[in-house]
Design a protein that fits this description.
The chain is of the alpha+beta class. It has 3 domains: 270 residues, no CATH class; 175 residues, Immunoglobulin-like; 131 residues, TolA/TonB C-terminal domain. The protein contains 14 helices and 29 strands. The strands form 8 sheets. Strands 9, 11, 12, 13, 16 and 19 form a 6-stranded mixed beta sheet that branches. The longest helix has 35 residues. It is elongated and about 100 Å long.
Amino acid sequence: MIQVTLVLALGLAATMVLRRRSAALRHWVLAGAIACAALMPLAEAVAPAWQLPLLPASSSRLAPGLSLGDAPGRDAASAAGATQTIVSSSPAILSVLRTAWVLGAGLSLLLLGIGIARLLVVASRARPVSDGRWAAESAALAERYGLKRPPAVLQTRHPTLLFTWGLRQPKVLVPRDAASWSDERIRIVLGHELAHVRRGDWAVQLLADGVRSAYWFNPLVWIACWRLRLESEHACDDAVLRLGVAAPDYATQLLDLARLFRHSRRSFFPAPAMARPSDLERRVRVMLNERMDRSPVGRLSGWLVALGLVALTVPIAGLSLSAGDTPTALRPEPAASVSLAVAAPATLPAATRPVSATSVPSMPLPAPAAVTPRVVEPTRAADNPPQALGPAKFVVSVTDQLGRSVPNASVVVISSGLLVQIADGTTDQGGEFTAPSLTDGHFQLTVIKPGFKTLRMNVKLEPGKTTTSRVTLQLGMLAETIVVSAQAGVAATGTFAPQARHIGAAPAEDPCSQSAEGGCVTPPRKLVDAKPVYPAWLVEAGTSGTVVVDAKVLTDGSVGSLQPAQGADPDLADAAMRAIRLWQFSPVRLNGVPMEVQLEVTVKFEVVKK
């Protein structure tokens, strides 16, 4: 979707730049952009892959809601909201999205098919016009437009049908009263409709309708299709004016047709309509503007536009967005392997806040963990004898930082092309998940395990091959938010140094030490807390601010490696770090082994006015 959106956005932007050029050129640009969007899945298969690290680093975060362990002082902590849950996305959401896409695309294609079927029925019941004024004018205009043969003119029983459709044998459908029209109106109508035939507008519009059906949820696709239809009508209007028809006469005939058709029920057909009321005012205004460029697309201009769109589409086809802390797409090579280890957060509880400081423990923010690139490994040719090309098979093996298999981790494999494929489930007791019968192409792998960072990586599957991805989940980050307030104009009293306060005791037992499975995380408890002290001179000056401090909870539970974020007020940062250094946690344990985890503390200093 991102790739198609970029291509269409570039096409629409080009039409804005070319607004002083002819409508035919703008239509050609939009038609090329939509064709590139339709061919994006094929271009993606051959384009060189590259990634743009625009997505935020993904991680599971701790949020208020679920208490993790009992500790002395818990009542005070609960009153302050110091409880946490682990927030993780559910693969069921992807199933819902997949179902919604299939229903929307199916309904759009069904409506398109019904429209084409109605065209066939109407054409089969229409009467061919083989002689008379309509046939003579059609033959004359076909020769002038350079058509090999004039399209068939069919007179229908419908009072308002007036449009052109068809590929190899185009047909112009005219209403039942068309025989009574004046020679001038017949020439204008046929000049407009045969311009659609010469330009191949029905095929282009049908392609656009197909792309819109596949990307029905993307508003930019709808805008591009609307602009395509509008520029098509403008280009055909320009073709009529180049025939020598005076603009006021053309506008008068167009308005008369609109009045003639306005009392009849509108018919929805997948074909360009000449007198569409919604676009009429804009078209009349443009055709009466003598300064408009009405030239057709030259051969050189057409080739330059086509080559430019291809040159932009190929790199866009290989583009995928990645998180800032996630390695670029790993593509299996015939005799090599690549695996990825990405880390995640442990569940860490919040602590009781000091009485004089309002503590808001959201514990969100499982930090980006270190990334260990290893290997995504396709089956070697020696291990897998040559076979006919068939479905691709994808095996995911999940381990934790200690190398133990992680069962019950949620795995989602979703395609990034036009054909949506989703395979989801959980890893077995051996930490493996198998996604069989996938087509080749680019996929995104997502692995979710509570207490760990959500892992996302891109892989490329090859037909008839088994690709194995060995990924390592890592513990994430503890995050805490504290609000420290002081009243303006009130002199500070008491000590100006933060005071450590014992608020809990370490758990007596570690259930994960006896676990036979990997991925068992024992969250920490906060044992010692200290409130930041608002510097008195900043209170008097009315200085407020927010300080973000990055740190680590070490294997002994102490806090070290403190580093304030850039741009923080030095005095506020020093006040925050003086308190954080006094904190003490019970160690975070993975499978019973003490581990270091990252800690991010956000301290909001606020001066409250009376």
